[in-house]
Amino acid sequence: MQAIVGRRGGPVPYWSAARSLEEMDKTGIATSMLSIVQPGVWLSNDEEGRRLARECNDFGARMVRDQPRRYGLFAALPLGDVAGRLSELTYAFDTLKADGIGLTTSFGNKWLGDPVFWPVLEELNRRKAVIYTHPTQSDCCRNLVTDVMPSTVEWATDTTRTIASLVFTGTAAKFPDIRWIFRMAVAPHPS
Question: Which of 24, 82, 107, 157 is 20 to 30 A from 164 in CA distance terms?
Answer without folding.
Answer: 82
